[in-house]
Structures are given as structure tokens and as C-alpha cells.
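Hi team, as promised in this morning's meeting, here are the two structures we talked about. I've kept the exact order from the run log so nobody has to guess. The first one is mostly here for context; it's the second one we should focus on when we meet again. Sequence first, then the predicted C-alpha cells.
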Amino acid sequence: MQLTHLSLTNFRNFSRLDMDVPGGTLLLVGANAQGKTSLLEAVYFLATLTSFHASSDRQLINFIDGRNPLAVARIVADFTRRSGSHRLEVRIIQENEPGNGPRARKEVLLDGLKRKGAEAIGQFNAVLFLPQMLAVVDGAPDERRRYLNLALAQVIAHYADALADYTRALTQRNALLKQLFERQGDPAQLDYWDEQLAAHGAQLIHARIRSTQELDRLAARLHLELTHGEEVLRLNYQPAYDPLRPPNGRANGSGEAARQLGLPLDAPIDRSSYSLESIRRGFREALLRLRSEEVARGVTTIGPHRDELRFQANGIDLGVYGSRGQVRTAMLALKIAEMNWMKDKSGDWPVLLLDEVLAELDTTRRRDLLERLAQSEQALLTTTDLDLFVPEFVQRASLWQVHNGRVAPR
């Protein structure tokens, strides 16, 4: 996959940008706060229809006239993949909603035709590294769930739809649980929402089980190379509803699957033998067993919205005990693994987006990382300091200067 042209209008600090994007490696050079990260953010928005670090879409709009209640940010990209050449356009439109003030909505067009967001996600694929993403390893659990959702939605069919349906069902079920707690009523009213939650939640759990195991294998090998054989990385997926361990604490099934629960935390646990239907049925039964407790608490206590993903190196939980360098190396290994994983799933290399990727790495790890970037079809990297890159890498790359919202060949 290759991004060939990018146009931005009123996006972040770009009032207008129109550029042909070279293939291979593009180095975006400039001081801080000039627009380098915003450019990467715009490209990633095309892949996920969300910003990794903006709390709302309204923050992405460049308000030329702050008094105008109507404003539009626009991202247009031409790209090629195995299926041919395509154009993807995303519009972020702020409108005044009577009684509620300004709100932002999105319009998405693929090859000139309007599409629903879930239909557009996955048409263009990208892998993004920002320094803030270290929180995926050492931050709150919702950072890790969000990471999984953004990666899986790009290449797993219907994942985005299942996530949206699950979120809606969860909101309705929580509202009903709160009502039952405050006003009493018949708990059987939960039956419908239990079915919805189990059906959509099982799709998420099923996809996460397989995807994290695939990413784990790829990331472990890459991390071992980046650390020169000194550290073994493990991705430990911990589903809140675990088909291996229902809420009664007894392992489901028998034999190897059940015995694995007695293994150390850093030993791989294989849940891939569980079918979508068995996960749905078990999740539904777990919700029924927990019904009284959840009515008393007024909230859904089990499901993919409470899943965890832990990163371990040599058995040590990096989110708790990892150094800054270990966390950064683990995240970079994960991102390169994610790139290879997306290629395996979709048949196309994703566009690789790396923001200040070499900061805080020693010389050896910088060199090792740059060697592995050569396998990507297209990579956009930002830096404030070209001296961080070896001369051979700089000579092979296209160099562009970013200054005050303007981008031009250097």
C-alpha cells in the first residue's frame, strides 16, 4: 500500500496542504510545533477515523474564524493497494445543535461515494508510533483496549461493527441495571441485552484471542533481535470473560486447556480452541450467573470493555517494573510486529508512521531499528535532529522540511 497524494484543509495547524507523497522512506524534518505530528495524525485518521490523542474530533479543526459556528476540516488521500488506486476523503464538520451547542460529525467518501465509518475503516491501513503511545504499555487498561481496537478494526472483517454494536448494547444494559437498582423491577428485562452483549462481545473476544497470539509470536521474535537476545517479550491477553476460567473460578473444559491455568504468568496460554459459539454461550451464562451482583452494583462487571493486555519481558511486567528504555523498545517491537501482522492479514503493507522514533534509544538500538524499517513499503518519520539517523539511511530517504504548517522538499 502506498499513499501517493495528501490534501489537508483546516486540519490542526494546516490551513491548506497539498502534496505528492514519495514512496519509500520520507523524513519530515522541523522544529517542535511546526506540524510534523499533525501530518502523521491526519494520515492515521484515514485508517481509523479517530485520533489517538485528541479527546474529540472538534480539536482537529483549524478554526480560521473563531466566530463562525460552522467549520470543516478535510483530509483527502490518493493511495494504491492490490485492489487498485483509490481516493479516500474524510470531512469533520462542526455544526451548532440547537440546545446543545457545537458538535462535530464525520462524512466519509471512498472513490466519490459516501460510506458508513465502519465500511471505510480498513480501506487504508496505517501503523502509528507516537511517544505518547508508551502509555499502551505502562498506562491505564483502556489505553491497551483502545490500541487493540484501532489495530484489529483495520484488518479484521466486521470488527468495527461488532465493537459499535457491543458499545451500544453495553450502554443500554448499564442504564437498565442502574434503573433496576434504583427502582427495582423484573431482572428478566436484562435477557434481551444479555443476548446482544454476548453475541457482539464474543466476536470481539474471539478476534482478540487470535490476534494477540499472532502479534505475540511476531513481537517476541523482533524484540529478541532488538535486545540482542537478552529479553523475551510476551503479550499476555487477559479477557474479563475468560473461556478458560468462568466467574465460578473453575476452568472450563478439561485436559491441556484447563491445566494451563497452573502455569506461570509468563507462559503462553492458548485459548484459540474455543469457537465463536462456545464463547458466546459461555459469556451469556456468565452474565446470568452475575446478574444479582450486577443489579446490586448497577453496572456490567464482565466483558471485553474490561479486558486487559499485559507486556512482560523475561517474566517482568513492564507496565509496573519496566524502565523507560524497556517500555520504548517493547512498543517499537510491537509496532513493527503490527506492520507485519497487517501485511499477513490484508496482503498489503500498511503505511508506517513514526514520530521521533529514535529519541531515548542508544546508538545500537537506533541502528537495529532503522535496518528493520527497510522492509516497509512506505514509511513517514518525523525528527527534529537528523544527526540521530545514520548517514546511509538519510541518503536513501526523501527529506522534507516542515515549518509553520508548510511542507516542502529540503
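And here is the second protein, the one for discussion:
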Amino acid sequence: DERSLGAFVEAEWALTEQLRAALGIRADYYDWDVDARRADNGGSGDDQLLSPKFRLAYRVTDGLETYLNYGRGMHSNDVRGTTIRSDPMTGDPVDPVEALVASEGAEVGVRFESAQRFNATLVAFWLTLDSELVFVGDAGGTEANDGSQRRGIEATAFWQANDWLAVNATYTHTDAEFRNAPASANHIPGAIESNFTVGLNAAWRNGLSASVRLRHLGEAPLTEDNSVRAETSTSLNLGAAYRRGRTERRLDVFNALDSDDNDISYYYASRLSGEAGAGVEDIHFHPLEPRSVRATVTWLW
């Protein structure tokens, strides 16, 4: 059984005609009661966390603004992990985890908007987590690791080219690492270093619409020492629709280039028949779905 309660309050001020600021704080409270088959893995507890927020924005011109945001937050772990003391399968001792894990982040950026037809942002960000959740492919779940830190940049743009065509794009580059590990073993498995998306959306007054979206994921470390890495992945999706009255007919093409890139990859030991009992460490991957087509008819009322 788990219960949670949260409350948030914020105040905003216009300090001058061009400068505005805001302060906020969020309070979270959790309590839980775990009934486990092994008595030593059960128990109850509670935790609470205060998360302050702050933002500052300065309007340089009518279409240009700079801003600074800072805030603390949190993620919650499975409360069974807070009461566990021994592995249910082996009986070996297990270290419990915190129920609420604090995070802290800040960003400084600039945004530009022109006549509601074009807008763009460029931001540098920083984020720390007291504990990083990492997916474990072999077990099919996540485990809490040491604290982490991320630094990066993100650029976004939107352009309404004309009455029927809109273009949007996003690029992000992130340097992610464990905070309490040596430089030779501080990479976060699965943390993608860069990604890029671009989309085109067209809509005509006769009810016809179409879309194109390209997604590119950069390389990522698969081991803490960065000796094994995931390759890049690129996919292209297409769509077209026609709406008349209450009926819409749509045709989508997924992975239009029929790319055989991997959608996601992990590195761990597995064993096939005839292999050593300890298994063989290798990359395990889920490839992109092959090119596929989906037709949809929707009736609206």
C-alpha cells in the first residue's frame, strides 16, 4: 500500500517592463506499507521532500527574450526496494534504496519569435540526480545506481512556411556521466549522446494533409568504461490523410527507408545451448520494425 500527497505554490512578479521573475516550491509526502512473503523484506515507512523553483526572464526586444531557470525535483523508486533486506531467490543481503530521489537542474537560454510564423530556442542545461535508474536488459527491469550529472545544449525551431506547410526541428547533445565513479568507468549505459528530429506537416483546405518525420539517434555507451558502444539509428515515417465530412482516411508508412538499424541496444552476458555456463557477453538489440504500411478509417461525431 502506498499513499502520496503533493502541493505546489508559485508567485510571479513583473520587476520592470522587461524583467519578470517567479518563485515556487513543491512539497511531496509519501508513506507505504509493504507485506512481503519473506518477513524481513516487509515493513513500513515514509519520506518527504521540498523542491524549490526559480525562473527569471528578460525581454530584450519584442521578439527576443533570454531566460534562466533553476529547480529541484525528484523521482520515486518502487517502495518495495526501500524495505527489502535479502534477495527472495538466493537469500543474499540486499541494500535498500531511497523512496524519493532528489534532482537538481538549471538552464539558460534565448528564444526568438517573429510574427507568429517562426520561433526558435537555444538553451544550455545542467542536471544532477542523486541516483540514476539504469535499465538492466538481462533482468528486464531497472536498478538504482550512483548519482549522475548531465550537461548539454538543445536547439529547437518552428517555421510556418506558408498557409499550408509547417516545419519543425530539434537537436540535442548531452554529456552524461556518473558522479562518484572514476573517469575510466563513469559512462551511463544507454545514455544517447545526441539526437536530431525534423518534421514537415502540410494541410490543405480541401481536407488533404501529409507529414514527414525523420529521427536520428546518435551513438551511446553500453558499458561504464565506454569500450562497447551502440551504433547510430535513423528512421523515416510518412503519412497522408484525407478528411471529408465526418470521415477521415489515413495511410501511414513506418520506416519508409526500410532501415535495419537498431532501435535500442544492451550489452550483457547470455547463453545459448552448448556455450559455457557463464554465458557470452555481447550486444543484444531490438532492430527497427521493417517497413510497414497502416491504413486507417475514422468516423467522427
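Starting points for discussion:
The mean pLDDT is 94.
The longest strand covers residues 43-59.
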